[in-house]
Design a protein that fits this description.
The chain is an alpha/beta fold. The protein folds into two domains: 249 residues, Alpha/Beta hydrolase fold, catalytic domain (Rossmann fold, 3-Layer(aba) Sandwich); 97 residues, Rna Polymerase Sigma Factor, Chain: A (Orthogonal Bundle). The strands form three sheets. The chain has an eight-stranded mixed beta sheet with strand order 1-4-8-5-9-10-11-12, sandwiched between helices. It has a two-stranded antiparallel ribbon with strand order 2-3. A two-stranded parallel sheet has the order 6-7. The longest helix is centred in the middle third of the chain and has 15 residues.
């Protein structure tokens, strides 16, 4: 187990920045049984932390990532990094999630491909990657694995838990599974269960991967596999993360440099085509195709109403104060789904509120620059 109580940055950060951070691995040698009944002899979670855990162990803020995210939510791994962590705009000294006050943590989920145990990890029994022999993963499995990690770190109670999209699902499940452990929950752009349309989008992505001959039934070399299928899955999914208005404002019908107006070819003609192609190509260099299958399936199966009989019944165990955030232009998980979560919490007699931000940036609004979002988060954590 690679665990330490304090995880200071490795260099003096710029004002407001988390600075240089180093990923660490939590390794559990105890068997883990998934909801499916399948087991692993142990597992690893790759994680990062920012700030310091106080003596009482109760100033921790857990960040839960979305489908294509990972543990690297703030700071940089080296001075040469072009991009910081995916929520760097929200996390850091003096920011909405203030690392001068809080011990901020984020782990790559089980089933992932950024250091946590997943389909691309070697099976101790064979020495080869698990592939699709890896156990099926659910949101509840993700939460239970993270609780084991937090206990090992000495976290006694979470001051707050924040997450967008799939991260919001984890926040809700955490509040249900470990009610006395979470003081505040902040799910954003999330849902208590996906619509048929959202499941359909995920299935198109999975089929793009599985119909690629290089998928080979889930057995492919580390540097190979269904790269075309995974790129197409990412391109299609990315369209659901943005809005018509934001794409039109950014690209419109602008032609790619060098493209002729009347070219009767299937080469890239429009800037939006070039953008999506870049999204697909960059994604295949950092994500495993089998992990994409597993995590999208976990999202599809998340259904609090079915699991507990009703949303109100699901939330009877929740003790945390909850702020649910929706975004007006989110058509993947429309704001009505977030509002329904807050209403069910209130009907269950819980402390809950709902805020809806007016934005035309789509589902990914929670990741983008937003002074309104920062103000809401800062106020909730105050």
């Amino acid at each position: 187990m690679n665990v330490a109580e304090d995880h200071p940055a490795t260099a003096t950060p710029a004002p407001g920045e988390a600075g240089l951070v180093e990923p660490r691995d939590f390794v559990s040698a105890e068997p883990f049984t998934f909801e499916s009944g399948q087991t692993l002899p142990g597992f690893a979670l790759r994680y990062e932390t920012y700030g310091r855990l106080n003596a009482a162990g109760d100033n921790a803020v857990l960040i839960c990532h979305a489908l294509s995210g990972d543990h690297h939510c703030a700071g940089r791994h080296s001075p040469a990094d072009k991009k910081p962590g995916w929520w760097n705009n929200l996390i850091g000294p003096g920011k909405a999630v203030d690392t001068d006050k809080f011990f901020v943590l984020c782990a790559n989920v089980p089933g992932g491909c950024q250091g946590s145990t997943g389909p691309s990890s070697p099976d101790p029994a064979t020495g080869r990657p698990y592939g699709i022999a890896f156990p099926f993963v659910t949101i509840r499995d993700m939460v239970r694995a993270q609780k084991r990690w937090l206990d090992a770190l000495g976290v006694k109670r979470l001051f707050a838990l924040l997450g967008g999209s799939m991260g919001g699902m984890q926040a809700l499940q955490f509040g249900i599974e470990y009610p006395g452990f979470c003081a505040r929950l902040l799910p954003m752009a999330s849902t208590a269960r996906e619509s048929a349309q959202a499941i359909a989008f995920n299935e198109v992505g999975r089929q793009a991967i599985m119909q690629d001959p290089a998928w080979n039934g889930g057995n492919y070399p580390k540097d190979g596999g269904p790269r075309v299928g995974l790129a197409i899955a990412r391109m299609m999914a990315h369209i659901t993360y943005v809005s018509d208005a934001s794409m039109d404002r950014k690209f419109g019908r602008k032609k790619k440099d060098g493209a002729t107006g009347d070219a009767y070819t299937f080469d890239v003609q429009f800037e939006v085509e070039s953008y999506l192609k870049h999204q697909g190509e960059s994604f295949i260099n950092r994500f495993d195709a089998n992990s994409y299958l597993y995590i999208t399936r976990a999202i599809d199966h998340f259904d609090l109403e079915a699991a507990y009989g009703s949303l109100e019944q699901a939330f009877t165990r929740v003790e945390a104060e909850t702020l649910v955030l929706g975004f007006t232009s989110d058509w993947l998980f429309p704001p009505g789904q977030s509002r329904a979560i807050a209403q069910a919490l209130l009907r269950a007699g819980k402390r809950a509120s709902y805020a809806e931000l007016d934005t035309d940036l789509g589902h990914d609004s929670f990741l983008l620059e937003s002074p309104q979002l920062y103000e809401l988060v800062r106020g909730f954590l105050a």
